[in-house]
Amino acid sequence: MACLLRVARNPTFERSTVASKRQDPETIPSFHCKASSFRTKTMSQSSAPGEKLKRKRREKKAEEEEEEEEEEPIGGDIEDLFSDKETQKIRMSLLDWYDANQRDLPWRKRKNESEKERRAYEVWVSEIMLQQTRVQTVLEYYKRWMHKWPTIYDLAQASLEEVNEMWAGLGYYRRGRFLLEGAKMVVAGKDGFPNQVSSLMKVKGIGEYTAGAIASIAFNEAVPVVDGNVIRVLARLKAISANPKDRLTARNFWKLAAQLVDPSRPGDFNQSLMELGATLCTVSKPSCSSCPVSSQCRAYSLSLENRTISVTNYPTKVVKAKPRCDFCSVCVLEILNLERNQSGGRFVLVKRPEEGLLAGLWEFPSVILDKEAGLATRRNAINLYLKDAFQVEPKKTCTIVSRKELGEFVHIFTHIRRKVYVELLVVQLTGGTDNLFKNQANDTLTWKCVGSDALSTMGLTSAVRKVNSMVKAHKQGSSVAPDSSNRAAISRKRRI
Q: How far apart are CA 53 and CA 342, in angstroms?
């Protein structure tokens, strides 16, 4: 076994463990984490040549296995586990602080024993919403969600359209879809709401973190949770400078968190750890003087001893991959029907595929471009798309009333920086809107026409709403400046 743990300031420590079944029962292996070496200390020496030869072969095999394991990168230096004294002190300090300082959040309302499943549902919804999203943003969404679907049984009856509408603007829309699918799965089962991590992780959209949060908070199971806030707190408590994104490093953060969990109040302790990271042990401006565990914090201690060391050095900053750039031409297609004396037109919306980016959501017709392109190239691409998808072809199936460039803006996804060009195309169809739908059965409908009022109330993504606001501004004779603070941007931090 490769050496996994290394002390931040003292590179040498020794910890014994029980011998494996393959090892000589007369030997006790121990970790010597200096220069990543593994030695076997023999309790008694045999004078028999055969025994010595066997022992040498075993030691050689152990060294070979150690060398093989060392070839796998372990991602940096991970501290050893907390001592029993440290563990008890941290538990007591954090729980006392949490009892006195926890924020009043709606999903923290305690339920009696008969309402554990209701509490579990509330924790589930809140934890999914809080992923990569600020608490202040989540509060209103959570309240509206619970008003509409107060129980998991209510949610299981909802449609994806309803969920997407409720989720609109919150970003990472797959989360809402998974919540709906998971609710349907739980309600369809015969065993009620899962109450342990192992069973919770079988539910669609529930991973190790969410399962731990639900199990510990709602069902009092003594299991850990590890999110960005917890990693930051643990990395500073132990002055861990290893890359937190490394697979083995991440696994050991889970081990540290598991050691700390208070068995009598696991849910409160997990929430106290996350609360500390969200309110005091923040990314760039930690309030160490107010921290309840500063006396156990090695990073804080090191910063006092050496002015060149800062608490914010921990955890190690991971360089994010540069987002790829792409370009998109959006055509807001407005169809006028002068025969019905309509004062305004109806807008065509396209439903995205059920898999991939923004799956199943509605948007205006658009084309992804190979590269940044001029107006003529963008219009040619849009014209081909409209002809192929909707049989909209100037002079043949429609008359162009107006066509206007409305501007452009940049929209940020997790790994994509998208430049969006927007135009408004107003047409009058020769055969009316019915011809648009003649080749599509109702059960395979992937697009529809809606009025401006319906468009304003639909659950649309922030980018689509931005496009719609540009159309409204144009019709009102004003302009809308590009929005540099994209609500869907990955820069939103969880629980801050």
A: 97
The 10 Å Cβ neighbour count of residue 146 is 18
CB distance 214 to 206 below 8 Å: yes
Q: Are 298 and 239 in contact (CB under 8 A)?
A: yes
- 79, 117, 122, 127: the catalytic one is 127
The amino acid at 464? V
Give alpha helix (H) positions in 339-484: 375-390, 434-437, 452-457, 462-475
Q: Is the dihedral of CA 174, 248, 271, 295 positive or negative?
A: negative
Query: Is the pLDDT confidence value at 34 over 60?
Result: no
pLDDT greater at residue 259 or residue 54: 259
The values of phi and psi at residue 40, to 5°, are: -120, 120
HSE (CB half, 13 Å, CA atoms) of 424?
20
Residue that the structure tokens 């409204």 belong to: 472
**Which residue in the block uniquely carries the two structure tokens 């009092």?**
220
Q: What is the pTM of this model?
A: 0.74
Q: How far apart are CA 295 and CA 483, in angstroms?
A: 44
Say whether 117 is catalytic.
no
Minimal CA–CA distance to 227: which of 206, 241, 213?
A: 213
Q: Are 233 and 225 in contact (CB under 8 A)?
A: no
End-to-end C-alpha distance for the chain, whole angstroms: 39
Q: Is the peptide bond before 315 cis (omega within 30 degrees of 0)?
A: yes
* CB of 222 closer than 8 Å to CB of 216: yes
Contact present, 426 and 334 (Cβ < 8 Å): yes
Find residue 362's DSSP bridge partners.
Answer: 351
Q: What is the pLDDT of residue 113?
A: 74
The answer to whether 275 touches 232, Cβ cutoff 8 Å, is no
Lowest mean pLDDT among 208-212, 355-359, 449-453: 355-359
Residue-wise pLDDT for 413-434, tens only, equals 878 999 999 999 999 887 666 6
Q: Which domains does the chain have, with CATH numbers?
A: 14-70 (no CATH), 84-313 (1.10.340.30), 324-475 (3.90.79.10)
Asked if 276 and 292 touch (Cβ cutoff 8 Å), the reply is: yes
Residue range 377-403: average pLDDT?
A: 89
Token representation of residue 453 = 């009022």
Angle of the 266-279 helix axis to the 228-237 helix axis, nearest 10: 80
pLDDT at residue 466 above 50?
Answer: yes
pLDDT at 440 over 80: no
**Residue predicted with more confidence, 40 or 275:** 275
Pairing relationship of beta strands 447-450 and 346-351 according to DSSP bridges: antiparallel
What is the rounded distance in angstroms from the CA atom of residue 366 to the CA atom of residue 383? 11
Instruction: State how far the Cα of 422 lies from the Cα of 401, in Å rounded to an integer.
Output: 17
**Nearest CA among 448, 492, 488 for reference residue 466:** 488
Burial (CB < 10 A; 0-12, 13-18, 19+), residue 166, is middle
Amino acid at 225: V
